[in-house]
Automatic annotation (TrEMBL):
PANTHER family found in the cross-reference section: D-ALANYL-D-ALANINE CARBOXYPEPTIDASE (PTHR34385), PEPTIDOGLYCAN L-ALANYL-D-GLUTAMATE ENDOPEPTIDASE CWLK (PTHR34385:SF1)
Listed GO biological process terms: proteolysis
Molecular function terms, GO-annotated: carboxypeptidase activity
Species of origin: candidate division CPR1 bacterium GW2011_GWC1_49_13
UniProt keyword Hydrolase present: yes
Name used for this protein in its record: D-alanyl-D-alanine carboxypeptidase DacB2
Source superkingdom: Bacteria
Keyword Aminoacyl-tRNA synthetase attributed: no
């Protein structure tokens, strides 16, 4: 039987984490209670190197603060500790048209002009982008996470996931990018298109939330496909300073 190298690397990382995390990290009862959790990323972690500085089990299970819904929530500080209410639905959800999408996707209507400009500029640079995933409801993420738990078990699945309400996708301002006609994420991650996005997304108000080398700050493995709209001015500021949105919001 052919062994899965991705799974082996995750198991090795699990062993390292469990030394200091106590038995709760591998408690079978938590696997049974997995229905209350949801998936942040579409796939389980793929790189043992990028996982070395991801927040450990003590942080993952340390509890949450549910953010009050105030204003447009465009800059809501969502991370491993701050969550959106489970009932939160962003205003103005609109079906994304005119660009390539995998299935039907929704985002806030107010950010679509910026998105279309981004896709247009990418096309001129030779990259045909596609939206793999945009708005995700709290409930849809629960279902997705349950699937990955059934495939890998709760502990492994949770290494690349967020707790309920902790996903930026629930804001309706966040999307996962891919390349039209290419496999995802392998066809996009680390590609010339990914590099172009990292250098140019800010011009259209987007920032890459989970950047390489920032794992210990964001608490998530690097995801070069995951971008969030924060407005042109702030995106330019983040890009100029070389910091993530998490760093910016944590300093306020």
């Amino acid at each position: 039987m052919r062994k899965n190298p991705r799974l082996l690397s995750i198991l090795a990382y699990l062993l390292i984490l469990s030394v200091g995390a106590g038995s709760r990290f591998i408690n079978p009862e938590e696997i049974k209670a997995s229905e209350k959790w949801n998936l942040f990323t579409t796939l389980p972690p793929v790189s043992s190197e990028s996982q070395k500085t991801v927040l450990g089990a003590q942080d993952l299970y340390s509890g949450s603060y549910v953010l009050p819904v105030q204003g447009d929530m465009l800059l809501a500080h969502i991370n491993k500790f701050n969550a959106l209410p489970s009932t939160y639905v962003p205003p103005g959800l609109t079906k994304v048209t005119s660009v390539s999408t995998q299935g039907t996707q929704y985002l806030r209507g107010s950010i679509l002009p910026y998105l279309y400009q981004l896709f247009g500029a990418a096309s001129q640079a030779g990259f045909k982008l596609s939206i793999v995933s945009a708005y995700r409801s709290y409930q849809s993420q629960v279902a997705t996470f349950n699937y990955w738990v059934s495939q890998y078990g709760y502990t492994i699945a949770s290494l690349g996931s967020a707790l309920p309400g902790h996903s930026e996708h629930q804001l309706g301002t966040t999307l996962d990018l891919g390349l039209a006609g290419k496999e995802w994420p392998t066809g996009y991650s680390g590609s010339a298109a990914s590099s172009w996005i990292a250098k140019n997304a800010y011009k259209f108000g987007f920032t890459v939330s989970y950047q390489p080398g920032k794992e210990s700050i964001t608490g998530y493995i690097a995801e070069d496909w995951h971008i969030r709209f924060v407005g042109v001015d702030l995106a330019a500021q983040l890009h100029k300073k070389g910091i993530t949105l998490e760093e910016y919001l944590s300093r306020l």
